[in-house]
Fold:
Amino acid sequence: MPGFELFGAEEQKEVQDVLDNGVLMRYGFDPMRNGHHKALELEKDLAAKMQVKHAQVVSSGTAALTVALACAGIGSGDEVIMPTFTFVASFEAILSVGAVPILCDIDDTLTLEPKAVEALVTSKTKAIMPVHMCGSMADLKALKAICDKHNLILLEDACQAIGASYANKPLGSYGDLGCFSFDYVKTITCGEGGGIITNSELFADRAHKYHDHGHDHVGNDRGAETHPFLGYNYRMSELNAAVGIAQLRKLDYTISTQEKNYTILRNALTAIPEVTFRRVPETGIESYAFLSIFLPTEELARNAHKALGSHGVDACFYWYDNNWHYYKKWEHLLEQKSLNKLSQEVKSGLQKNKASYPASDVWMGRTISCLIKLNWTEEEVKERASKMINAIKSVLTEVV
Ligand SMILES: *Cc1c(COP(=O)(O)O)cnc(C)c1O
Structure:
């Protein structure tokens, strides 16, 4: 997944354009720019690549989620349904607009389970936020049907799955709003950055204003602009955008390389009948950023994860015990350890979250996800496949 594996002359050239004129900010300073508008260019490229009308780049994936929620009018006391398995940023973004994250069980897609989602809809629910973890996606058709029925926003957190598709659409473009992260370990990186995509004129217009203190961006005197509503600063710098432009051009190559490496590993693992694979919803095509497998039990998964490490297979994750990706370890959030006072609405809303999610535990306890890298040679992938087989077989035979 990490785009940083592909850094080269292309990124350097784009950054040099910015350094040559010294305008590091996306707005203003037109006479000095020599025609370079990197953030704007990245937005045009991203919208075209994602086949949507609008893209807004921002300072991080967390900022993308925050701005998207604000643009959809989600705020104080509103409930947003999100999965138990995600990066903590999804939870943080909802809290940051004053809304309440409502945790929901996942299934063998490792994303929201639609029936569990519907059971959580209340009169306060405003949005459903599927998180397309580890390069694959949620059952968006089923989630869209729930959104249509209850008049909810569908906001896709596609931070870990850029380049995947669903129903012939680039992932992130199916819902009302889609968000990407370009942080340092993502498929495309610009150091720190994020993007929002949408076909909604209204949301796009709100996004450029909200992410820049509410500026209306009319005319060429920034000091004279009006502010139709409140906003904050989630701008992306020209330096970051420059890197993003070069990285986005490499997306097709990145995805096809991931697919090639993933396929070799997956085909090899089919030799072990006890190993099964994460379910990809119908019409979905993964970005192949990770290969996620299930072992028959939690104990076998734990042992297999350890064995993978000791057999020299790096970058495999057992998320169930991970501090940042599964709700169980988010004590600081679940116990409301906030520096500043949370509103009473948020405090009582958070009480709705259950103490345990056994259905999620079943899947997460059995899951191991292995990162797919870009710079492996075919020989290295094949060697890795045989090490994986040996490692997993070693724990399976122990039991018999
Ligand atoms: C990385 C990530 C984010 C946040 O992105 P940052 O750019 O690191 O703020 C949000 N959601 C998911 C699922 C992520 O993996």
